[in-house]
Specification:
The complex is a heterodimer. Helix content of chain A is about 65%, strand content about 0%. Chain A is mainly alpha-helical. Chain A has one domain (about 1-85): Non-ribosomal Peptide Synthetase Peptidyl Carrier Protein, Chain A (Orthogonal Bundle). The model of chain A has no long low-confidence stretch (mean pLDDT about 85). Chain B is an alpha/beta fold. Chain B has one domain (about 15-320). The chains are: A mainly alpha, B alpha/beta. The interface of A and B includes residues 31, 35 and 60 of A.
């Protein structure tokens, strides 16, 4: 979760500490100003974790729920690692 | 007749540029100071009720005849923005004052027919109403689709865009259209404000495959479409905020964020030009653009945005009467 918060801060160039903001509020604020901010955050997450979001997960409701997002990123990361172990080539 | 105002631009480009153009009617009026009824409101009242209801049964020629009859009223109602536009057109198109006035008037007429075409698109059998007289460069579109990363159709605010996009959808090339929400129509009175929900609803029904830039889900929806290998139509010439550029001789605010999607998704970009009206329109696709890739937004914008704008500017200068933003202010 902390890593996701860090990616959020970095990708949106926010001048914030990891703990001193409400993720949902800040994301809503950024998305309200410019929905591209959400896209930047998602693509930064994909780069950071080496995953690709499934199309049905590319919605603001998924991205703004930090717990659900963390669980999803964990699932995708685990799946990617399993696939890498099964097919090292 | 008034037109849909689905994109805004800078309020006072002439002043900002220092150009000697007449002032537009772009002043902001507090709602309480609005007149009760304006001529624009009456035209909308006719459009949204009797004409809309008749349009569901009447043949197109009859609807267009109504358009022709109401054209002088619409031209009179828009005389102030037209005077402003004519001075701008004269400079941008390097033409004579008389020709500039003709372009401004024709652009307004074409915009009105576009609004009437919007009613035809509400019919269940709208496909039968769309007569495409030419589809050029479809191989460019198909080659771009073949890359598998989605395609952005790059264009300006041309009157035929909506009918062309509905036609393309009927041919298996559905494109998500990206719009800004309508700002207040400056010619609107308090009565006209009551029509806003209905006019927005009609606009959305005329092209259901669209999303508003102000929607927080906008960029993710576009990304979903592109990742599925689909098409997204972007009209880049009508935004108010963003990177300062010169466009048609005036300083212009381009909402550059939308192009971040091109950079981040690695999609193809194909220029598209749609001309005409539902009774006869042409669509042209140009070869896919060679996009300069870049790791940062700034580098990407400075490498590509002037070229994107140049393409749309050329489309407009070659077809000035088909561009509907001349009289927009």
């Amino acid at each position: 979760m902390a890593r996701i918060r860090r990616v959020f801060i970095d990708s949106l160039h926010l001048n914030l500490g990891e703990e001193d903001f409400s993720f949902e509020t800040k994301l809503d604020e950024s998305a309200g100003l410019d929905s591209v901010a959400v896209l930047e955050f998602v693509t930064a997450l994909e780069r950071e974790f080496g995953i690709t979001f499934e199309p049905e997960m590319l919605t603001i409701n998924v991205v703004r729920d930090l717990q659900a997002l963390t669980a999803y990123v964990d699932r995708r990361t685990a799946r990617r690692e399993r696939a890498a172990e099964e097919d090292p080539a | 007749m008034a037109k849909y105002r689905d994109i805004t631009v800078t309020d006072s480009p002439p002043e900002a540029s220092g150009a000697a153009l007449p002032r537009s009617n772009a002043t902001s009026t507090p709602p309480a100071a609005l007149p009760l009824v304006t001529l624009n409101d009456l035209l909308w009242l006719l459009y949204l009720y009797p004409i809309r209801l008749l349009a569901s049964v009447l043949p197109r020629w009859f609807l267009y005849a109504i358009g022709k009859l109401s054209d002088p009223i619409a031209q009179f109602e828009a005389r102030r923005p037209k005077a402003w536009a004519a001075a701008w057109i004269e400079k941008a198109c390097r033409t004579t004052p008389a020709q500039a006035r003709r372009i401004s008037s024709q652009s307004l007429s074409n915009t009105m027919f576009r609004t009437l075409d919007g009613l035809l698109l509400l019919r269940p059998s709208y496909c039968k109403m769309l007569r495409c007289t030419g589809l050029d460069g479809i191989e460019h579109l198909e080659s771009a689709i073949g890359r598998g990363k989605g395609v952005v159709l790059l264009t300006g605010h041309f009157c035929a865009n909506r009918v062309a996009l509905r036609y393309l959808a009927s041919q298996g090339h559905a494109a998500l259209s990206v719009h800004g929400r309508q700002p207040r129509n400056r010619a609107q009175g308090r009565l006209g404000k009551l029509f806003d929900p209905l006019s927005t609803q009609l606009l959305e029904r005329a092209n259901p495959d669209q999303i508003y830039i102000q929607n927080p889900d906008c960029s993710l929806t576009i990304l979903r479409r592109l990742r599925a290998g689909g098409l997204v139509a972007l009209q880049i010439d009508g935004h108010r905020w963003g990177t300062g550029q010169v466009f048609l001789g005036l300083p212009w605010g381009i909402r550059s964020g939308i192009f971040e999607i091109v950079r981040l998704s690695d999609c193809a970009v194909v220029p598209m030009l749609c001309l005409g009206r539902s009774s006869g329109f042409r669509i042209r696709f140009d070869p896919m653009l060679d996009i300069q890739r870049a790791s940062s937004r700034e580098t990407f914008m400075s490498a590509n945005l002037p070229r994107f704008l140049g393409i749309v500017e050329k489309q407009i200068l070659e077809n000035p009467t088909e561009w509907r933003l001349w009289n927009h202010w």
